[in-house]
Design goal:
Layout: H1 8-17, H2 37-43, E1 53-54, E2 60-61, E3 78-83, E4 88-95, E5 113-116, E6 128-133, E7 136-137, E8 141-142, E9 156-161, E10 166-178, H3 184-187, E11 195-206, E12 211-222
Parallel strand pairs: 4-5, 6-11
Antiparallel strand pairs: 1-2, 3-4, 3-9, 5-6, 7-8, 9-10, 10-12, 11-12
Length: about 220
């Protein structure tokens, strides 16, 4: 999912779609029309301090080696994601940004997903907890988020934290964006209502660039 010049989600989207999926023409069937866009926008705050930004020179201004995690050690990382409606049970790994490519460093195993560790953890009372995953891979086949586009409003999922506690979420929105137009500030914000953001790639696959054109974004709120 290359959204490279727009920062870490560029990253995320990038790492998620920067897959060598030659021979795949599209990410499965196209998703249904966007749902819940107004709800997703209403959840967002106005201070995107967790969002990767872009410098005037076009380079990504994002944390790479060192994260800005709370000093009190109260951040609760997600370690497991279960989405029954689409048959997903996946391990969640903390990830950052690849120093060389500037892309969100999604786990190389397509059956695992990555939590953006420079944003909020599961204990947050505000902001977006971001998890990204591969849609597929030429070598490994279907990824954990291959069917993410099938989620709809009202579907439920569970995220287990490092503290052993399971937290339930309800889907309120599913949207598809051309990667260059995805509103990163909304999905990486540290403020606004607490929410979970799931991202993968989608839309047509370009065999020349070896990237998908779009990003699929699912927003869920605590159930």
């Amino acid at each position: 999912m290359t959204v490279r010049n727009r920062g870490a989600l560029a990253a995320m989207a990038a790492g998620v779609a920067a897959l060598t999926v030659a021979g795949v023409v599209a990410c499965g069937s196209q998703p249904a029309e966007n749902v819940g866009s107004d709800e997703a926008a209403a959840l967002a705050g106005t201070t995107p301090s967790a969002a990767p930004t872009t410098t005037a020179a076009g380079g990504a201004s994002v944390p790479v080696s060192a994260g800005t995690l709370p000093a009190d050690g109260k951040t609760v990382p997600p370690v497991k994601l279960a989405i029954p409606p689409i048959g997903v049970v996946a391990s969640v790994n903390p990830v950052g940004v690849n120093r060389r490519t500037g892309e969100f460093e999604v786990p190389p195993s397509v059956d695992q997903v990555g939590w953006y560790r420079y944003g909020p953890g599961l204990e947050t009372t505000g902001g977006s907890v971001v998890i990204a995953g591969h849609v597929d891979s030429a070598e490994q086949g279907k990824g954990a988020f291959f069917r993410l586009r099938e989620l709809d409003q009202g579907d439920t999922l569970t995220v287990t934290g490092a503290d052993g506690r399971q937290r339930g979420y309800r889907v309120v929105a599913r949207e598809e964006y051309t990667k260059t137009k995805i509103p990163l500030d909304r999905y990486f914000a540290r403020d606004g209502e607490p929410r979970l953001t799931l991202i993968t790639c989608g839309g047509p696959f370009d065999p020349k660039t070896r990237h998908y054109r779009d990003n699929i974004v699912v927003t869920a709120v605590p159930a």
